[in-house]
């Protein structure tokens, strides 16, 4: 596996992260974008049945149990962190008959070209040299294959300040998305659709506990989607879901 210096730093960071016990402090904020992950899984399900799927940057396999229930033909799960892959195998041992695990570099996977009907990932692209990763994703996708990704945005000034104040919580080379990154994806894919998440649901996080049964959360997420119709409010979103098709 050929690795750049950035790849090596990413691998070391995630290996060390997965060796630690407990959850990251930032995990406490994820309930603010629970609706994003619901939509993420729904989009995967739309393109999953009896198809070849690639979990791009699978980490410890958090999405695999959900996705395997969508009846894909086969899932390939790849990640640069060998510690993460071993955890993913362990976490999936009760349902991994359809899963092929691979420790590899997502910028150059070594996987067969035009093999996959769908490539999905959660918080992976902003850790990579984006153009290299996008070219590789396009290479392994079949004609008219789809992508589904959720990623963080780098446009909210308060979130960016928090990132600067907590550098140990993230890898040194990660780069949340800005407009030029969306433009880059547009060079290689078509039918691009972007949906934004995490403005009022994040601001008013202390006002609700459950992300599943909270009326406050339901109201806030609806208000967010109304506000995100206006371009200016998208700069204050935390994260986004992007879908597209190979052109």
**Radius of gyration of CA atoms, rounded to a whole number:** 18 Å
Would you report the number of β strands?
A: 7
Average of per-residue pLDDT values: 95
- Classify the fold: give the CATH topology: Rossmann fold
CATH superfamily: Vaccinia Virus protein VP39
CATH class: Alpha Beta
Percent strand equals: 15-25%
Description:
It is a single chain. By secondary structure, the chain is α/β, with parallel strands linked by helices. It has one domain (5-19, 26-246): Vaccinia Virus protein VP39 (Rossmann fold), CATH 3.40.50.150. 38% of the residues lie in helices and 21% in strands. It contains ten helices and seven strands. It has a seven-stranded mixed sheet. Strand 1 (52-56), helix 3 (64-68) and strand 2 (74-79) form a beta-alpha-beta unit. Helix 1 packs across helix 4 (82-91). The longest helix has 15 residues, at 5-19. The two termini are 29 Å apart. 40% of the residues are buried.
